[in-house]
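Notes to self after the call with IL:
- keep both proteins in one doc
- input above output, always
- annotate only the second one for now

Protein 1:
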Amino acid sequence: MADDPIDLFDTWLREAGAGEPNDPNAMALATADAVGRPSVRMVLLKGHDARGFVFYSNGESRKADELAANPSAALLFHWKSLRRQVRIEGAVTRVSDGEADAYFASRSRASQLGAWASDQSRPLDARETFEARYAEVDLRHAAAPVPRPPHWGGWRVVPDRIEFWEDRPGRLHHRRLFVKTGEGWTEGLLYP
């Protein structure tokens, strides 16, 4: 058992891309506030490498508030059609402005405008309010590329634990746990 967990994740993500019908990069993101109250939601993985796993969002959202108060998170990829899942835990850091700018520029115009129009996670009195804000932002940026809002950015989960779970008959599942140790990883098995 000498696999690098990032290389193994790359392989599993490629296989999920070929076999999952929708969003193979969808992941559950679990955070907790300053007093430990947990919260979980689905987000999309937008990049990963040896430094960690990256997602983007509104910096004034509930998840951003929780990550500011408690900069740790857990991720879960569940690929039901492949009968596999990957669990990742670690500290969270913000991505650079340059990385955030580059990713924001790659988004569709509608998604860029939505990032300006939405007060993500805040109460909304009526859908029409949001649609009017969207129309106003669209008009304001009609003649130029849409810049990244200052409150919008990315986070990187820097893994210190990565578990690979595979379904087996009779619930005799196969679980491999990688734990970060210095510059490398140790690997072991877990009972199902």
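Protein 2 (the one to annotate):
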Amino acid sequence: MAIVRPTPEQLQDIAKRLHMQLTPEQASEYLTLMQGSFDAYDLVDELPDNVPQVRYPRTQSYRPSAEQNPYNAWYYKTEIKGAAEGKLSGHTVALKDNVALAGVPMMNGAASLEGFVPSFDATVVSRLLDAGATILGKATCEHFCLSGGSHTSDPGPVHNPRRHGYSAGGSSSGSAALVAAGEVSMAIACDQGGSIRIPSAFCGTYGMKPTHGLVPYTGIMPIEATVDHVGPITANVCDNALMLEVLAGPDGLDPRQYFPRAQAYSKTLDRGIKGLRIGILVEGFGLPNLDPRVGDCVRQAIAHFERLGGHVAEVSVPEHQLAGALWNPIGCEGLTVQMMHGSGMGFNWKGLYDVELLKKHVGWRDSADNLSASLKMCMFVGQYGLERYNGRYYAKAQNLARLARAGYDHALEDFDLLVMPTVPITAQRLPEPGCSIVEYVSRALEMIGNTAGFDVTGHPAMSIPCGRVDGLPVGLMLVGRHFDESTLYQAAAAFEADTDWQAL
């Protein structure tokens, strides 16, 4: 079908938006010259899209009832069985609802996307099924993934299985809640500012944000390509390592993957930590909203590492505060360009585009007033930076990100891993419906002080449960060298084998 050609008047309007003036005669001349380009558009329009084939049978999906969904952690349920044998045979998996699962609706927490049904599977889905996993459905996530709380999703707030009425963390809220509740053994989560680690800390699960690019993001709705990460949430260390083994490695379709180096992570779990050099990141305990009880709990857990034979000492990385600050121009301007103006896909990268998602997500403009307050705030910051400063702070922040990375890398020359609280607080009570904008946004972003910077620098970072405060889980974050997830698993497994975190 031929694409619609513009009229001379429409071309004049386009020129004005490009800060140009065309006479009617010039517009007609340009239109004549443009016909060859439009003929090429016609050819593209006629051809079928080049997307992966769906290889595993689908069962009918459904929206679970409130009785079937006590934490509001499921968006849609289904059952898709993978290969008869494989590393993940016998494991059940929930997918964060920004991950494409062919034939099953995907809402990404936002009403404007409701009704979209992907036509192909994300790479991580194919790898899980090839490894024998059974996918049980899509986990509720926050509104376009812009919240560290669990109160912004249009399907409604996700409740923490450890205490109803309290936040499950975000933006992978349903993923962590379903694992913590025992409804699945594993979940796929994504992390741009802490969205794997925050809900893991709040819910008492194990959440690994791998090195940037280790796991392909193909087929997952992005926020900003330079901070997009995808990884596993599980109930124990072994399952987490096994799941990452299945997920890691290049797929040839994701430009985030420069030179990913995957390893056999499950083979490192019995090494212990005797002799391991562990740096207590001083700045990680200096957040202004750190609950002293959380800090004490994490320090007590670190003492266990020392008793197990680790060499523990404090280390300062002044760039830690810088890394967190850089998230603002990179995250806000980047998401405004790629996720919003770019209708979920953006431009200028090679890989697998979801054309139908792009077509659907255009519709956010028709209901922009209904976007979550946390997303609106980030868009306001991003749009101002783009319009007033033409993106130069985004560019400078990307340059400075190399300095932030170098600061951590320098510390990791003397230490095998860094430790600190994952988040400065435990799960908080969910905000009441109709709360103020200030409360809504504050409760969405109050916990990212230690997590966001490692999305900017790309270091692997894992949250493990290390104790409780007033009955709610506390998370300890392990950070390592790029592509050295094995050392994080080694330390996490030693702590898990020695300690019942729920008894601390």
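Annotation: The two ends are 66 Å apart (CA to CA). The first helix runs from residue 8 to 17.
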